[in-house]
Amino acid sequence: MPRHRIGPIPLSGAPSPAPRQAAPANPRAARNTVPAHLPRPKRWAAAVAALVNLQEEYRAWLDNLPPNLESSPLAHKLQAIAELDLEELQAIEPPRGYGRD
Q: Over the range 38-63, which residues count as b (16 or more CB within 10 Å of their CB) and which as e?
């Protein structure tokens, strides 16, 4: 017995196109994400590396600010990010867990 059809019957015998996958809202963020299936120490290292890279981008932005923005709130925020000490985060080695330390 044929299955009950929900919706209109197609006019041709051609298969319907595959549904499109939605593009990520921020393609750069999708590229920098770390898969959840990786072990926590590797995810930690990837997150710290991402923070260090972002800090370098903010430093470059701060270095290239035009003179009229050097005392602006934007410059103060960029300076605060550039002054963060991320070496402490890089020095941390998270536990591997379950007695494998």
A: eeeeebbbeebeeeeeeeeebeeebe
* Position 35 pLDDT exceeds 60: yes
pLDDT at 66 over 80: yes
Amino acid at position 14, single letter: A
Q: How far apart are CA 37 and CA 77, in angstroms?
A: 34
Q: Residue range 6-13: average pLDDT?
A: 72
Element containing residue 87 per DSSP (H, E): helix 87-91
Residue 3: both structure tokens together? 């299955």
In terms of pLDDT, which residue wins out, 54 or 19? 54
